[in-house]
Amino acid sequence: MWLLNAKTYALKFFHTAKTAPPYAILSHTWEDDEVLFKDMDDLEKAKAKSGWQKIEYICRQALEDGLQWAWVDTCCIDKSSSAELSEAINSMFKWHECSTVCYVYLCDVTMTAALRDDAPTVSEWLERADRRAPVGPTISSFGRYSIETLWRFHVGDFRTVIYEIMFGIKNDHEGYTRPCNELDISLIDTLGAFSTAKWWSRGWTLQELLAPRNLVFMDQHWQQIARLSELVVTVSTISSVDVEVLLKTAPLKSRCIAERLSWASKRSTTREEDTAYALLGIFDANMPLLYGERSRAFERLQEVISQRSNDLSIYAWPRQPTVDKHLMYATAPSYFAGLSAVRTRSLGPTTGISVSFMGVTLTSRVYRKYGHYYIDLGCYDMLTPNLQIMLVVLAHENIVEKLYSWLRLKAPIVYPLAATATSVEQSLAASLTVHLPKEQRLPVENAYPREHWNLHSTQFYCSLRDLAFPVTAGLEFKTSDGYRVCLALRLDLHDRNNSSRLKKETVSSGFVYDRVFTYQCSAELVLGLSLDQACTQFSSWHPQDTPVTNVANFGHPGYSQNISRLALGERQLTVEVGATKHKYLVDHGMIEFDIFIIATTPTTE
């Protein structure tokens, strides 16, 4: 890669980004009269171009930040060499990932107010908006919630604010009224300008958002707007990329193919082929560049991705009316719009996918119902977790023996999980989701039983076949100071007419109901035992046993009357159990619970 000396503007070649000296990198949108690689041979000529200002900006900022080198795509890639251009595009994600800092230059944004997710102006505005709201949580109702939960409310409110601003500005909606408060007007103007900057609509800038470890937004006058970490909720709302991925607390590969492609669905590039080439690094893929192939480039990208993954969500895109219904691959990222909430779920074995001129070969469950055939894509939408996304297919004629080939018939559909299983016993019946504290990382070391856990989402799934009460599960964590902590979970079934045991619980627990039974999820934090021991002990536990942890009483409808606490030096972990989304009735036959682990530092009088 070529790097630009921030003092002399001289270009120097380095073989790899990892062996290159620390450097700053520029993310921007191309304008007219950019400085190109060939222009750097004559600096006077280069400085006469309007694009020189960006180069001057980043070099000056790099020196202020203690960096001697910078990289700008306009002048650090020799585009006259097809080989060098191909290598650069295939390496672009890695180059951004290895940079010390990435400056995002928003040429169409001017700052008029402090723009941070936690800025006092934003918080005051949200508080006033909350007081004006006819329905909604009040501060008095937050007493039992952790800081993490309060933050989730803040995120939700802030997302609503940004959506309203973007919608009002974009459509000049007659129902969109500007507030009278001068501070609010300034903040709205800044939010509006930031969220509608053309940088968010460009295909190449998606990887420039995801790859760098340290990202700083600058306005058109090169005034710092904020670091990504200070603006992550706003950025997540605009880009549809979740906060965990933006903050690097979750790896890119933990997000399914459909979700990652949805991030690019509303972005565009000047050349059609670049819609695919701009996504190579996001999928850790490499392929040759063939300008002139148009939409075939995106199809080739999907073929490459398919051969590296068993993730069938790549086929979950809705078929467009003008597209050949038999196509397995989409012709543009826009087909994945609206799939940002798709998540994968392992419901059975799938083998590696192979692609040839004959089509796509894979192994997955095929179901027949009402004369139609369905392929299980192993994914679902978060809004309907009890429904599975299925691909409707048509059996090809003249098939011999038991080998089948299929033609894509129409758009994927969502289907009740019970109907997707080969028998009712294989349908999902219980889901337990563990929420970890954001302020203190608790990496998962082990899970029990491992085959029922999705460790990326820390979710436990149990099929009806395995639902033999009591159901026992657990996770093992390692804290930053070396403690090994086990979370033991137990799911019990009680007759609704006999609630005597429910009143004797001494560990954290929550309840959901159906017409006949009460389902109870209990949780306990255990120190000093292996995960197997902790789960075995919890499985044989009964109300008269002395709990390992201290218990504090909390009164809140729908949640346990107890929470389990575990002291770890000067800190403590707390676990609470609650019904998912405050639903206390079993919905669609699915027993669901949320388990919250909260890290706190007790205060002393």
What does this structure look like?
Helix content is 23%, strand content 25%. The chain is of the alpha+beta class and 605 residues long. β26 and β27 form a beta hairpin. A 7-stranded mixed β-sheet has the order 2-1-4-3-5-6-7. The radius of gyration is 27 Å and the shape is globular. It has 4 domains: 104 residues, no CATH class; 109 residues, no CATH class; 121 residues, no CATH class; 174 residues, Mutm (Fpg) Protein, Chain: A, domain 2. The longest helix has 25 residues. It comes from Hortaea werneckii (Black yeast). This is Heterokaryon incompatibility domain-containing protein.
State the main characteristics.
605 residues; alpha+beta; 7-stranded mixed β-sheet; 14 helices; 28 strands; 25% strand; globular
Task: Compute the CA-based radius of gyration.
Answer: 27 Å
Shape: globular
Provide a count of the helices: 14
Please identify the top-level CATH class of the largest domain: Mainly Beta
**Residue-averaged pLDDT:** 76
Helix content: 10-25%
Label the CATH architecture of the largest domain. Answer: Sandwich
- Quaternary status: single chain
The CATH topology of the largest domain corresponds to Mutm (Fpg) Protein, Chain: A, domain 2
Q: What proportion strand?
A: 25-35%
Largest sheet: 7 strands, mixed
The strand line-up of the biggest sheet is 2-1-4-3-5-6-7
Structural class: alpha+beta
Protein name: Heterokaryon incompatibility domain-containing protein
Domain Heterokaryon incompatibility: 23-208
InterPro entries: HET
